[in-house]
Amino acid sequence: MESAIAAGLQGLLLGVTNLTLGHGLMILVGSLLLYLGISKGYEPLLLVPIGFGAVLVNIPLAGLMGEEGILRFFYENGILTEVFPVLIFLGIGAMTDFQPLLENPKIILLGAAGQFGIFLTLLLALAVGFDKLDAVAVAIIGACDGPTAIYVSSKFAPHLLGAVSVAAYSYMSLVPLLQPPIMRLLTTEKEKKIVMGTVRQPVSKKTKILFPIVVTVVASILAPIGTPLIGTVMLGNLMRESGVVERLKQASENEITNIVTLLLGLTIGATMEADKFLRTQTLMVLALGLIAIGLDTVMGVLFGKLMCLLTGGKVNPLIGAAGISAFPMAARVAQVEGQKYNKKNYLLMHAMSANAGGQIGSIIAAAVMLSVLKGMGIVG
Amino acid sequence: MDIWSFGLTVALVGMGGTMLVLWCLSLIVLLLRKIFPYQPDQEAAKKG
After folding, report:
1. Which of A80, A195, A234, A239 could form a disulfide with A212 if both were Cys (CB 3.0 to 4.6 A apart)?
2. Is residue B8 one of the residues assigned to a domain?
């Protein structure tokens, strides 16, 4: 009897005796993500489930990511199959209004320049020793677009998924802190004060409906491997603009997105097991992710300066920083910065155009990169 | 292929390709707007 009680008590202590320093550290990391999401409001929809997933998976002997673990099931069937990121894209498309972009299409080019950080970071990642596909996964943080980063890293470097996702979502929420110093540094006093006129050019409903269809066909033909990304975003947007499938649109932007966001976040958190996450490589991913977003801003502002030069001073280069996917945060940053130097300057609508361009740009950049990799025979 | 040839190829073709695709899209939007211009009366009728 005594030995049975001792064995029973021992069973209660198994969790404690198997708790390692790594587990403890990762529970703290998970708690930090929860703190950032709950107290600081940094991307709470993702950081709360990611943080909780990280806590859960580091409970010794819980086996949530074991062979028959429930989080392993979601990981294999939702992330490795790309179902979760693709469904999130559907919701993003249904929520996104491309009107500012359609009103001012030339500004879309800023959305391309704002992605150059991806490609420059790829070179940096290769320089510090990442192999080719790992470097691609790290570089994609520069898309400043969580679902795109998850899609690419789950496809090519699933072992980096946790670090890449945490970096992507954390830095996205830090855009208002990261961008302004770079914007100030790269622009002159005169450039910051440039007033851009009003561009309100109403767009017909036919144009709004045809836009997602044409973008899907053209972009998918040019970068076929990115079709799941482009196609689902544009399907979501078509449902929004057509106005005839209100229920599907509502479901995409609410129920589907909410359920998938929860499962996606939890499962990403579950990839943050101590033995896989506590590596120097993780710190390098976080550092390179920060550099990637900085380089996006640099390239966007520099391209803005080029447009300013080519248009005879009609474009305020500050809006170049909005050519990233963090919508509408980056546009607000450009507006706030512009008003610091000229109180009568309203850059918001122009910056929103650049920001919408950045949303499409991030997906196109990922699709182009995947197609280039396929063309080079690096991926199947 | 060594990593630098790989990196430079992906970077250059990637940046050029992204710019090219988005430039094509901007032209397409301009074209769509020309073919289907905004007509306040028709749009109001659709909404009404």
Report:
1. A234
2. no
